[in-house]
Write a structure and sequence with these properties.
CATH architecture of the domain at 12-135 and 209-274: 3-Layer(aba) Sandwich
CATH superfamily of the domain at 12-135 and 209-274: Alpha/Beta hydrolase fold, catalytic domain
CATH class of the domain at 12-135 and 209-274: Alpha Beta
Order of helices and strands: EEEEHEHEHHHHHHEHEHH
Distance between the termini: 38 Å
Helix content: 25-40%
Strand order of the largest sheet: 1-2-4-3-5-6-7-8
Length: 279
């Protein structure tokens, strides 16, 4: 189908569509205790392609978030943290999933924390967790810009045409401090070339209010391990350390060198930072 991934997309043979408020594209891989993996803004579940094989003994549940990757949104009005977490809980119920652990990357971490208020979780693991705000004028202007772009007709199509090539995508990714091989770059090119994916990403960014989530941080009692990498130019380790001081049961594991997409650069190092057992 036109809206499905290419035939060589990671774990395509283990994915299915699930209808629950949205038309989700989700991978189900392995057997054992269930682990939900939530990607960051602008990515898709494919970003865990190297991490999933390191999670032997667990059943990995990996949806594309609404409007991104290959999940078709049922409503563009449900891209904020609270509503998207509600929809993830609805997805779990519809699919018969009962995850005990959630692994999130970047913007997937606020979603995991919000989800912990809706269903019983034993642990959250955050990779370069986007739990802070932009500093200075950017903290005010960036959300306004995202809202304006999301509401402007044809912007997603223009972005797809101008940025949907390997050189532009490589520049974007290297700007985060990460370096991916040609295959990894090519997968992001596939996403950027999809105007619907760009539109969903802009919609998510426009609706994002992590400050509201963190205002209730003392009540977020789920144990959380925050893995921060020294080469991240998007979410520096300071963000994780600051968040850990606000959350009642948080620890920070800091790794050197790796950039924002650390789990795509060195999945083994990220798996090691999680500890021997996830639960």
């Amino acid at each position: 189908m036109q809206n499905d991934p290419p035939r060589d997309w990671p774990f395509r043979s283990e994915a299915r569509r699930i209808r629950a408020r949205h038309d989700w594209w989700a991978v189900e891989h392995g057997t054992g205790p269930e682990v939900l993996l939530l990607h960051g803004a602008g990515a898709s579940g494919h970003s865990f392609r190297h991490l999933i094989p390191t999670l032997g003994g667990y059943r990995c549940l990996v949806p594309d978030l609404p409007g991104q990757g290959f999940t078709r949104p049922g409503s563009r009005g449900r891209f904020g943290i609270g509503l998207m977490a509600e929809d993830l809980a609805a997805l779990c119920a519809a699919a018969g999933w009962r995850p005990r652990v959630v692994i999130g990357h970047s913007a997937g971490v606020p979603l995991a924390l919000q989800l912990s208020t809706l269903m019983p979780l034993e642990r959250v693991i955050g990779i370069n967790a986007a739990l802070g705000l932009f500093e200075g004028a950017a903290g005010f202007l960036f959300p306004l810009l995202a809202r304006a772009l999301a509401a402007t007709p044809f912007v997603p199509s223009v972005v797809s045409r101008l940025w949907g090539n390997p050189e532009k995508v490589r520049q974007l990714i290297e700007g985060t401090g990460s370096h991916l091989d040609a295959e990894g770059i090519g997968q992001y090119v596939t996403l950027v070339r999809r105007a619907a994916h760009v539109d969903g990403t802009l919609g998510m960014m426009a609706a994002w209010r992590v400050d509201r989530l963190m205002a209730g941080a003392p009540g977020l009692a789920v144990p959380i391990t925050l893995i921060a990498t020294g080469g991240d130019r998007v979410v520096p380790p300071k963000i994780s350390h600051d968040a850990a001081r606000m959350l009642p049961r948080a620890e920070v594991v800091e790794l050197p060198r790796l950039g924002h997409l650390a789990h795509e650069e060195d999945a083994g190092a990220i798996r090691g930072a999680m500890g021997d057992g996830l639960i």
